[in-house]
Amino acid sequence: MSQAMEQLFTITRQNRKILYRYLMDTPAELLHKIPKGFNNNIWWNIAHVVVTQQKLVYGLSGLPLIVSPVLVSKYQKGTFPSGVPSEMELAEIRTALFRLPEKTVEDYQSGTFLNFNSYMTTPKVELNSVEDAIAFNVFHEGLHLGNILALSRAVKV
After folding, report:
1. What CATH number is associated with residue 46?
2. How many domains, in total, are found in the chain?
3. What confidence tens digit (pLDDT) does each residue in 12-38 have?
């Protein structure tokens, strides 16, 4: 694996550690609160990045997603928070934050990603390979970490 790819995976791991701290350290009522001027909450942003990584890397490679279809339908692009997640959803996201990036590293190293369906992202970045998707995902997760930081200030975490 190239040094550039290793660095992308390292950045993802670090970002996921930060997301995990927000997930674990934010009281439930603030985790799910949608402050005035926002259309989502801290929880939704965390679940959304887990689902989006799967859709970008695995989905565009024509591979099955590892997250449950329920999570995909609730947290994919174009969705908004709807109620409080179940304990099972919380547990799946907690585990997925670290397990899925590590699984991606394993699959990348073993050559699992053989195909890729090109995709134009909302910010008009064209993805033409799994490497493009992994790199774009780092950017995407950074955007949502920024949202979480703003949300945490708004809800006074």
Report:
1. 1.20.120.450
2. 1
3. 999 999 999 999 999 999 999 999 999
